[in-house]
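Our platform keeps sequence and structure together, in a single record for each protein. Because each token names a local backbone shape, the row as a whole describes the fold. One such record is reproduced below, unchanged from the form in which we store it:
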Amino acid sequence: MTDRGLNKNDKMGAYWMPFTPNKAFKAAPRMLESADGLYVTTTEGRKIFDGSSGLWCSALGHNHPKVTEAIRAQAGKLDYSTAFQFGHPQAFELAEILAETLPGGLNHLFFTNSGSESVDTALKIALGYHRIRGEGQRTRFIGRFNGYHGVGFGGISVGGMVNNRKYFGAQLPGVDHMPFPYDASMHNSFGQPESGAQYADELETIIALHDASTIAAVIVEPVVGSAGVYVPPKGYLKRLREITKKHGILLIFDEVITAFGRLGYASASERFGVEPDLMTMAKALTNGAVPMGAVAAQSAIYNTYMDGVEGVELFHGYTYSAHPLAVAAALAAQRAYKEEGIYENVRENEQYFGEAIHALKDAHSSITDVRNIGYMSALTHSRINDVPMSRSSKIFQRAYENGLKVRVSGDTIAIAPPLITKRRDIDLITDMMVKTIKEVD
């Protein structure tokens, strides 16, 4: 029995929606019924351009035929297989493909079901690695202000977004946070800001406070996604790598958003030329068609477990790790990225996309900052009467009414279209944004 009387739209009361103002949504819902290519279709039959790639997931667009058919075929062959003490061939095939795709020594894959699970898995792998090596006192993690690393207790502990943390107690002990590497001098940078690498040196201050011998890992998003698309200053990530290596601290790149083409490469690690010890992935791994995540580990970490532990080397895993349908979707997606030149399309059109997004600021005084890299972009808007999200939330809703789906985060509108987007599609996005911002202003 359900108590629906508390909801304005009674038939929607049973579903408690994530990261959504439920009362407001159920009073005026935005309901999607189908999707194909660059568009989603509402229950009223309106076609909406998906300017946020689902939630950074649908890199190939929606309903990609190779991905869809792979899922259908797998469902009729092997619908489920436990990953505990059993395996299926496609899981090993996918791991090999990813190991070949990722840079350097990131040769070993542990499969999860989401970005949140990938982050918590990476944190646990880091702790176990140090313990096996006889440095079990390395238990601290260092995250970053404004970081987003999913919603598990590990992820919100190392994350730095206040609303994700404030309701849920003290979280993991022994976690510290680096400052956010962005300031007003970097506003409206095209791609990577020229200055700001010095922010990485703040890590040395934190290490001096706690002592390096107590710190297991540092975790960062190479490009900040959920907090509003903030691009790392030139030299910043390389400096973090230098500092962590010097002190024997593992570096974790959270590439849940950036992996598989968002920056025109298979990973941000490849684009920036910085190789982490652990890398988390999800979202575009399967084109968002079936939930799946992964953690890539350097061979040195994997071999430490294999050589240092008898029996079950890592007491960790999930009921749906390497789920056959997810693996089938991932295999099809990975093949499509290569066969259809998806990463190349982003590299070819990145400059055009960036120029089009930056041009919006010249036409609208309400835009206070523009940021871009690859097929990621963000427009920060001034507030109406100094009320947070007062303008951005109106733009989010009006864009939807005008046929464009974008993402709102605080005072920022993020635009990150599917990686198959061409220049004519970019023109359509900017035309709809011009119309939308004018109507709100």
Remarks:
- The chain has a mean pLDDT of 96.
- The chain has two domains: 31-60+341-440, 69-339.
- The domain at 31-60+341-440 is CATH 3.90.1150.10 (Aspartate Aminotransferase, domain 1).
- The radius of gyration is 22 Å.
